[in-house]
Amino acid sequence: xxxxxxTYLPWFLSAxxxxxxxxxxxxxxxxxxxxxxxxxxxLIWIVASESWGLLPSCLVLVGVxxxxxLKWAKPAAVSRGAxx
Length: 84
Prior knowledge:
Elements: H1 2-25, H2 31-49, H3 55-73
């Protein structure tokens, strides 16, 4: 099972990450939540492949995706004096 994870999960992760960036580029409201969910699979791959150098990136991206999701979930502030 470990070898299958190491061999095939990167293909899924690549497609998943591209899809998240596509969603974010289209300003989809759940883009960052989907990206946050994807970090679970990155963590599985990091542990299975013992690629510990990617662990800091995974942890930071959890924070970034979470932050961005919370910011995008808030309604946009209405600026004063702007035309409707």
